[in-house]
Amino acid sequence: MRINQNIFALNAQRNLQNTNSQLSVSLERLSSGLRINRASDDAAGLAISEKLRAQVSGLGVSVDNANDGISLIRTAEGSLDRVNAILKRMRDLVGWAANGDKTDADRQKYQDEINQLTEEINRISTTTEYNTKKLLNGDIGSKVTVAAADAGEVESAGVSGEILRTGTYVISVLSAGVAEVEGLALASGTGYSSSLYSALGASGAYTKTLNISTADGKSASVTLNVASSDGDTVETAIQKINTALQNAGMVVTATWNDANDRIELKSGEVGSKYAIAVVQSNSVSGAANFTITQVTTAVDVTVSVTDPAGGANQLVKSTSRYFAAGTSTLEPVDSSGIAGVTFTLTNAAAASTGAAVTLDVAKGSLILQIGPNKGEDHRMEITINDMSASTLGVNNIDVTNQANAQAIIDAETIDKAIEKVVTERGKLGAYENRLNHTIQNLGVEKENLTSAESRLRDADIAQEMMDFTRNQIMLQAGTAMLAQANTVPQTVLQLLR
Question: Residue 80: left if φ>0, alpha if ψ -120 to 50, beta else—which one?
Answer without folding.
Answer: alpha
